[in-house]
Design brief:
Shape: globular
Strand order of the largest sheet: 1-2-3-34-33-32
Strand content: 35-45%
Number of strands: 34
Largest sheet: 6 strands, antiparallel
Length: 480
């Protein structure tokens, strides 16, 4: 792979062509224009070995949102990051080959111009979807940035120039581009419970979807683009018709959403829904969401059916005894920090790609308990699915899972944790085949691109340590 990740970087200015060749090679962890290039050599005094290949330090506060895309033709990795400093940045990493066949990387970081007044909560790229445009028209490459100040800003991916600022909901929580062409943008609010849909070429709002009785925590188009699926703090998953703007079905999955309505309760447990993934099953119509109650729920979108309730969180015997003997009315005990009971929320979910042999009906859940679970929905079990593997890093590791992503062509799950570690798990046997370190604090967001015929995974992360890091994982070099 001719990527930015296995290179020694020439940082000598063009005007200094007469400098010695030795000066053209970077020292370990040398910073240039806000970018740190890491050569994987760490002093013994450093407690964390930085295995990342490139680090961006443009942000001055925690980073909450990351997206990336690798273009194989230009050997360019595009990264967009946003954080608590109310800023968003565009990063380009391009790999070229020198006359001696040595890969050399060039980086460019562009501050995105809109003056936000609150944290950046979400970022997106439409580049992966442009070639699916049914109109046959080559669409513009766009970045979308959403913020808790209510702004939704569109930029050019090429140079970071501002294209348009949309009017929309307050406290934007998430955004997604339509998978067929990338010209329709979906945005959800954590404050007013609305979902807005925009047409980016005309810069018009197409629909506003109203119905959630609390904040909308996540949402997406189905892979065929025919439906919108959203989940919220009200404990519901809702299916919407994009063109008509109406809700076609409500899955009421929790019992304390406080909403009411005609639909009967289909799940149970209490609390809100935290995360969502779509595209599961052979027909791509399965959606899975994680809940604060420690369960994950799998629904069939077009079939309007609850397929499975997955019990991710398992209460320990000690906690159960404590809750029964000492708990209050709710059976939960409060600790010194104000938290009740054990951590149980499911924070990350995902479906295994259908093209991986023998795993077409698998999905994964990750929780604040630090456990990764792999499920087989093709085998009926308790709740409609069978637990295949329970993956843990050990009793002494107290880090929770923040994001997970399946490999595109192998039965591997890539998971990020609150202690700044990335773990790669073999879903067939529940074994951790590799881990990547470098962050000094919680990883808040992670994105993965697959290159060189899916031989390598380029992992981009944003952390509370104010850095964006890019890692590379080669399955053939690990225990897989």
């Amino acid at each position: 792979m001719n990527s930015a990740v296995e290179v020694q970087v020439d940082d000598t200015p063009a005007a200094d062509d007469d400098d010695d060749d030795d000066d053209a090679m970077m020292d370990d962890d040398e910073m240039v224009n806000g970018t740190t290039y890491n050569n994987n050599e760490t002093a013994s005094s450093q407690p964390i070995i930085d295995q990342s290949k490139v680090t961006f330090t443009s942000h001055t506060d925690a980073i909450y949102a990351i997206t990336s895309h690798y273009d194989n033709q230009s050997n360019t990795l595009t990264i967009v990051s946003g954080g608590g400093d109310d800023r968003a940045y565009l990063h380009h990493l391009t790999t070229t080959t020198t006359i001696n066949n040595h890969p050399q990387v060039q980086t460019k970081t562009i501050p995105l111009a809109h003056p936000h007044t609150d944290s950046i909560s979400c970022v997106g790229l439409n580049t992966p979807y442009i070639h699916h445009d049914v109109s046959g028209i080559v669409q513009a490459n766009h970045i979308a940035v959403g913020s808790y100040d209510g702004s939704i800003v569109l930029y050019s991916t090429n140079d970071g120039s501002l294209v348009h600022v949309f009017e929309g909901p307050t406290d934007v929580e998430w955004l997604r581009f339509h998978p067929r062409g990338g010209t329709v943008l979906l945005v959800g609010s954590i404050a007013d419970g609305t979902i807005w849909m925009y047409h980016t070429p005309s810069k018009q709002c197409l629909q506003v979807f109203v119905g959630h009785e609390g904040g909308v925590t996540d949402g997406a188009f189905t892979p065929d683009g025919k439906w919108i699926v959203s989940c919220g703090q009200d404990g519901t998953v809702r299916v919407w018709a994009p063109k008509k703007g109406v809700c076609k079905h409500v899955f009421r999955l929790m019992d304390n959403h406080g909403g009411g309505g005609e639909e009967e309760e289909e799940g149970g447990g209490g609390g809100g829904l935290t995360c969502l993934a779509v595209g599961g099953g052979q027909d791509g119509q399965l959606a899975i969401c994680g809940g604060e109650d420690g369960h994950a729920y799998v629904v069939h979108v077009s079939g309007k059916k609850l397929v499975a309730t997955l019990t991710h969180y398992e209460e320990s015997a000690a906690a159960a005894a404590n809750n029964n003997d000492q708990g209050g009315e709710d059976g939960m005990d409060e600790d010194d920090d104000g938290f009740t009971g054990e951590p149980r929320s499911v924070e990350a979910v995902g479906f295994c790609p259908a093209n991986i042999p023998g795993t077409a009906h698998w999905c994964a859940t990750g929780g604040v308990d630090g456990v990764l679970k792999v499920w087989n929905m093709n085998v009926g079990g308790v709740g409609g699915a069978q637990l295949r593997q329970k993956c843990t890093r050990g009793a002494d590791v107290k880090a929770g899972i923040t994001r997970l992503r399946w490999h595109n062509s192998l039965p591997l799950v890539i998971a990020s944790y609150t202690d700044g570690v990335i773990c790669i798990w073999d879903a067939r046997v529940g074994k951790m085949v590799d881990s990547l370190t470098g962050h000094e604090d919680m990883i808040n967001d992670m994105d993965v691109s697959f290159v060189d015929g899916n031989a390598a995974a380029v992992i981009v992360t944003g952390s509370d340590d104010k850095s964006v890091k890019m890692f590379e994982y080669y399955p053939q070099n690990s225990q897989y």
